[in-house]
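Worked Example 4.2. Consider the chain below.
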Amino acid sequence: MKKTSILAAVMIIVGFAFIAWQKTDQGRQNKSDVGMGNTTLAEVLLPSTLSQSAQIGKRAFEEKCMACHGINAAGQVEVAPPLVHKIYEPSHHGDESFQRAASLGVRAHHWYFGDMPAVEGLTRGDVTMIVAYIRELQRTNGIN
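Applying the procedure from the previous section yields the following structure tokens:
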């Protein structure tokens, strides 16, 4: 009798866990369309709208940064870190850090992806717009 009660309790717990998992999985519809298999490092909530600067930055990001940093800056396993991450909050990595990384490259210091090379063909203005995009993604994800 005792074993039957324990088994029934376990089955109930598993059932509730399954229901909770399904609800969590359905809630991911509002998150970044990772589309790159299972290689992303962060789940990124997307803002409902982007400022004009961030829209321009998103296009530049997709052209010059996405190949490494992934869709919506979610990072990629064994390639590059997510930029929508607490490490890149404005108080730790200010906008000028992004400018310097894009123009000069940067030595690896927080992650184990290796050094980031300079990005060819980006102006300071381009990077300013990319940073606007990244900052809006960060704010939407609670990184201020």
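DSSP finds five helices and no strands in the chain. The radius of gyration is 20 Å. Compare this with Example 4.1 before moving on.
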